[in-house]
Each structure stands twice: as C-alpha cells, then as structure tokens.
C-alpha cells in the first residue's frame, strides 16, 4: 500500500458523505440534536447582532456555558449564506481528515503502512463518529483538533523535538475553544514533557513554564470576556451545570427512587436557584457556580457509596456503551422521547439487560448496527491488550501519554449521564494505542 493516508481519507469521506446524503433524503432535520439549537442560536445572534447568546429574544443575556469556536463556525456559514446541511458536509471532510491524521500518527511510530491503514480504518468506520459528523454538534471538530495535538505530542516525544510541544498546545487551545474540558490539558501536556525529562531538568522547567504561559495567554481573552460579562474569571460554566443537574441529580435520584429529571427540576424550582434571575442578570452565574460545586460535594459526601457506584457504571459505559437513540432519530425520524434511554446511570438495569432490551425494541437494522459497534470495540480492545507488552518494550513514553489522555476523558466523562458520543474524541487515540499489535501481526509489510 503506497499511500495509506490518502486511501483512509477517501474511505472515511465516502462513508460520511454517503451517510449525509442518505439522511438528507430521508430526514434532513435529524441533523439537529439536543444541544444543536443552542449553538445555532449563538451563531445566528453573532451574525445578526454580534451577541454571544442562546436567547432568541430580549434581553439576550450572554451565554456562559459555550466556548466560541463552533458558534463562530456556524456564523461564518451565515456570512456565506449556506444552510445547515453545509455544516455536516464540511464535517464529513473534517472527520475524514481526522482518520487520515490518525494514520499519520501510526506512521510516526513505525513505517508499516498496512498496519497504519488499520489504525485509520478504525477511525473511519467508527459508528458514533459517523453519526456525529452528520449532526450539528462539536464532536467532529473537537476530535479533529485533539488528534492534531496528539500527532505533535507523539512526534515531540518520539523524536525528542521539544519545539513541537508548542504545536500540540496550540491545537489543544483550538480544542478548548471548541469544548471547554480540554482547557485542563493545556497544563497536562507540558507536565508530561517535564515528567519524561528528555533534555535535562533545567531545560524542561523552562520549556514547561514557557508553554504553559503561551497556552494561558491564548485562553486569557475568554477568561477576560467572562470576567467583564459575569464578574468572575472562568472559562465555561458547563462543568457546574453538569455537577448539579447530572452528578448531584443522579445521586439523589438513586437515593430517592426517582429520576434525574425530577431531581433536576427540584433544584431549578427551589431556593436558591429559584431566586436567581438568570434571564435578566448575568452576574448571578458565579453564584450558581458556587452553589453547584458546594451542593455536588455535599451530595457526594452524604452518599459516597451511591456516588461511587454511579461513577463506576459511567466509567465502564464510556468504553463499552454503543450508540442507539441517534440512529433511530436519523434513520427513522424518531423524536428523542420515542427512544427512551435504557442505561441511565441512576437506574438499576445493567448494561447487559439494557442491551437485550435494545434488541427487543429496535429494528433489525438497529440491532445489526449495535452488533457491529460491539464487535468493533471487542477487536479494538483486544488489539490494545495485545499492544500493551509491546509499548513497554518500545515508545513507552508515547504509550503513557496516550493512556493518560484516555484516562482524563474517561474520568471527566463519568460525572454525567454517559453517552457513546463522549467516546468519539478518544477513538483515534485508542486506535493508535492498538497500532503495535497490528504492526507485529503485519510486520512483513513494514518499510514498504
């Protein structure tokens, strides 16, 4: 195979654009998911009024939860007078580029083009990645920026090129402006370089300080915007939203025998949130953040075993849960309420019970797609297991860096209702972790 990167791009793009065209013929409005309208409203308001808000009418209070890249992307399409379908068409390209970048990451490790092709194919055929490239959601762009950052991180570690760490941080800044959780990785990447200490402690300390400073300067404008707008310097308030309306509400639902939604509305309708005028006073956001953090910690301390059980279930679900409801929405035009979730973390049903129920209530096509996802994950994880001994023999620092990134996303994703979409950004990283196994299995193709 002479050009695996190009071949992977063509396959990934053909799959994604084919799916886009199919859904445009069947149910074109199904590209709009639960969070899509918030991004669309901000993009619309940015274009027409220059205001970063989700509100479609006065008083248009500024938004504190979203970061600016995706709304600006949508606003740019308004400038070009392109409709919503162009969002997913462009994302088909971006998803294909991501698969090809993962292939290039593998080639950095060993020049085995066939094994690198397998890595790219893992990304190209991942069902949740395909579904969310055809949705007005941030997953595709976030995964793209994250994978480029990983490319430069691998190259900097593998070839001991410290200047490339800066590129890793620059693209991680882009990822943070797409999804705010990545802002913490701006510190993790330089600290990894310091831990590996490839160029002496004095040099590494200077490099770490410089790179962290550059990352801080690049995200500082958004901190400053929030300070001027809300009276407190923070990057996004979405974490506190999740702490209160997902983490604390899930624990309370488990304890009280209710649902997360019931517990969420208890918080919304009672003091102190009921007294905060979010619509007319943006300055109450810091008060909400403080209450959410304190309440979440209090609930966890009060019910530690329940919290541990829920977090453990979410952590496992991060790695094994297949995507289901979005398939029904896009292929059959169902509404979200037509496909109720089967594995809410506050429920008592196991993933196995939920899987059996999914096969009973779904169509044959949905059942086949679930089976394909499970087979995909089995092959991927078995490949990683086969790769672990090889990582210890070669490129251990790269393997450690990749595993820490996966651990970061799996742990931070466990605080909320787990969905297969949270696994989308780490599929390229998981595929790269599986590369040594395929490189060994296909070693006769090395250096071709």
Secondary structure layout plus pairing:
Layout: H1 4-26, H2 36-49, H3 69-79, H4 85-109, H5 113-124, H6 127-133, H7 139-158, H8 164-178, H9 185-196, H10 201-230, H11 238-256, H12 260-269, H13 285-302, H14 304-320, H15 325-332, H16 351-361, H17 364-393, H18 396-413, H19 427-433, H20 435-441
Helix pairs in contact: 1-4, 1-5, 2-3, 4-5, 4-7, 4-19, 5-19, 5-20, 7-8, 7-18, 8-9, 8-10, 9-10, 11-12, 11-13, 13-14, 17-20, 18-19
Descriptors:
448 residues, 70% helix
Word description of this protein:
The structure is a single chain. By secondary structure, the chain is mainly alpha-helical. The protein is 70% helix and 0% strand. It is built from 20 helices and no strands. The chain has helices at 4-26, 36-49, 69-79, 85-109, 113-124, 127-133, 139-158, 164-178, 185-196, 201-230, 238-256, 260-269, 285-302, 304-320, 325-332, 351-361, 364-393, 396-413, 427-433, 435-441. The model has no long low-confidence stretch (mean pLDDT 90).
Which structural class do you get from the secondary structure elements? mainly alpha
**Distance between the terminal alpha carbons, to the nearest Å?**
7 Å
Helix share, percent: over 70%
Q: How many alpha or pi helices?
A: 20
- Sheet-strand content, in percent, reads under 5%
Run of helices and strands? HHHHHHHHHHHHHHHHHHHH
Low-confidence stretches: none
What is the oligomer described by this structure? single chain
Question: Quick check: average pLDDT?
Answer: 90
Query: Judging from the principal axes of the Cα atoms, what is the shape?
Result: globular
Radius of gyration: 22 Å
Largest sheet: none
Total strand count, please? 0
């Amino acid at each position: 195979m002479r050009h695996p990167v190009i071949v992977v791009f063509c396959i990934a793009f053909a799959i994604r654009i084919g799916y886009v065209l199919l859904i445009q013929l069947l149910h074109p409005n199904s590209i709009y998911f639960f969070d899509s309208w918030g991004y669309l409203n901000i993009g619309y308001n940015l274009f027409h009024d220059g205001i970063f808000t989700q509100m479609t009418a006065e008083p248009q209070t500024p938004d504190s939860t979203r970061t600016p890249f995706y709304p600006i992307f949508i606003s740019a399409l308004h400038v070009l007078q392109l409709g919503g379908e162009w969002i997913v068409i462009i994302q088909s390209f971006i998803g294909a580029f991501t698969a090809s970048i993962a292939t290039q990451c593998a080639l950095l490790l060993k020049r085995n083009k066939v094994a690198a092709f397998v890595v790219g194919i893992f990304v190209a055929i991942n069902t949740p990645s395909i579904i969310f490239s055809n949705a007005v959601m941030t997953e595709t762009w976030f995964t793209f920026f994250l994978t480029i950052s990983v490319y430069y991180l691998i190259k900097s570690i593998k070839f001991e090129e410290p200047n490339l760490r800066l590129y890793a941080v620059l693209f991680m800044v882009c990822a943070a402006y797409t999804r705010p959780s990545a802002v913490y990785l701006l510190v993790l990447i330089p600290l990894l370089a310091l831990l590996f200490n490839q160029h002496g402690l004095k040099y590494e300390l200077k490099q770490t300080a410089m790179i962290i400073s550059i990352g801080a300067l690049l995200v500082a404008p958004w901190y400053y915007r929030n300070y001027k707008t809300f009276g407190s310097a923070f990057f996004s308030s979405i974490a506190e939203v999740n702490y209160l309306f997902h983490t604390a509400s899930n624990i309370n639902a488990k304890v009280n025998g209710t649902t997360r939604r019931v517990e969420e509305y208890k918080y919304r309708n009672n003091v102190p949130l009921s007294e905060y005028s979010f619509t007319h006073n943006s300055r109450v956001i810091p008060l909400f953040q403080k209450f959410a953090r304190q309440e979440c910690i209090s609930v966890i301390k009060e019910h530690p075993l329940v919290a541990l059980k829920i977090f453990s279930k979410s952590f496992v679900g991060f790695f094994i849960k297949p995507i289901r409801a979005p398939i029904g929405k896009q292929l059959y035009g169902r509404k979200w309420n037509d496909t109720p979730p089967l594995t809410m973390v506050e429920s008592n049903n196991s993933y196995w019970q939920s899987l059996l129920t999914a096969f009973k209530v779904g169509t044959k096509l949905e059942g086949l797609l679930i089976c394909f996802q499970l087979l995909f994950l089995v092959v991927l994880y078995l490949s990683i297991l086969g790769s672990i001994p090889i990582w210890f023999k070669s490129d251990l620092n790269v393997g450690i860096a990749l595993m820490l990134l996966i651990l970061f996303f799996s742990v931070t994703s466990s605080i909320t209702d787990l969905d297969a979409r949270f696994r989308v950004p780490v599929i390229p990283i998981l595929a790269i972790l599986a590369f040594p196994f395929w490189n060994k299995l296909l070693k006769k193709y090395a250096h071709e």
